[in-house]
Amino acid sequence: MAHQSAxxxxxxxxxxxxxxxxxxxxQDGSVYAIGSPQGCxxxxxxxxxxxx
Length: 52
Hints:
With 52 residues, this protein is an all-beta fold. The chain has no helices and four strands. Strands 3-2-1-4 form a four-stranded antiparallel beta sheet, with no helix packed on it. The model has no long low-confidence stretch (mean pLDDT 86).
């Protein structure tokens, strides 16, 4: 079975508490924390991409 990239790795910020996380941004624009299927430790599940 071939491994397919699930998106671009980058840094994201939890929109609930402001914590930084390693995230993936999918082609559809959705963002999720890498290694944390439940999201942030605070319970937040929405992340914004940290702008350079």
